[in-house]
Structures are given as C-alpha cells and as structure tokens.
Design a protein that fits this description.
Strand content: 5-15%
Order of helices and strands: HEEHHHHH
Number of strands: 2
Strand order of the largest sheet: 1-2
Radius of gyration: 15 Å
Helix content: 40-55%
Low-confidence stretches: none
Shape: globular
Structural class: mainly alpha
Largest sheet: 2 strands, antiparallel
C-alpha cells in the first residue's frame, strides 16, 4: 500500500504494537491476521475492514477513489464479508515469501510503534 501512497499521507503501525495498545486498537487484532484499522488523525474517526478500504481508496485518489466509491455503495456487512474473504486468502491471492525484506528508509520513517 505504501507504494500507492504517492503523497506519503499514511503512517503504519502493527495492531500488536505499543501505539495500537495505547489507542485501544489491540482488541481488534485478529489472531489469524488480516484485520485492518484506519485512524484518520485530523478528526479521530476510526474505520474497520471494508469501511477502511473505502476510506483508504478515497484518500489515495484517482482510480482508487473511483473503486472505493463503487465498493462503498454496498452494505457494510457485504463489504466486511469481502474484506474477510480476501484477508483469509491473501497468501493464495498474493503469494507468501520465505522472508521479509527490509523496508526502505522512506517507509521506515512512516512506521510507528
């Protein structure tokens, strides 16, 4: 996702980390992975799962905003179902590597505890 964020407007933090614990987000962490929480800092609004996809797409702009608008017309339950389906099958869809590369400096600066 960071490669799509040309403006560098998003920071990242693991749900298992200190920042997420301080903000009370660790309760949303899914043991199997795949849970996403998006916090919009300017107004403190929190988005989960399918709603996070929609908000993220709108913030990225361009084709992502169009897709977010289309996805956003569906009811939350359906969006969350699709989110869960993709999250559950993410390795099948995107593959799974044997190792994780070190992030470049520009991304490391955007990672928070």
């Amino acid at each position: 996702m960071h490669a799509l964020d040309k403006r560098g407007g998003f920071d990242f933090a693991p749900l298992q980390g200190e920042l997420s614990a301080e903000m009370g987000f660790t309760k949303f962490a899914d043991k199997a992975g795949g849970t996403m929480v998006l916090l919009r800092e300017e107004d403190g609004e929190v988005f989960m799962k399918g709603d996070a996809w929609v908000a993220l797409g709108k913030e990225l702009g361009g084709v992502w905003a169009v897709m977010a608008g289309c996805f956003g017309v569906f009811p939350r339950g359906f969006r969350d179902f699709i989110y869960d389906l993709v999250a559950k099958n993410r390795y099948l869809l995107a593959g799974k590597g044997d190792s994780c590369g070190m992030p470049e400096e520009s991304l490391r600066k955007r990672m928070r505890g």
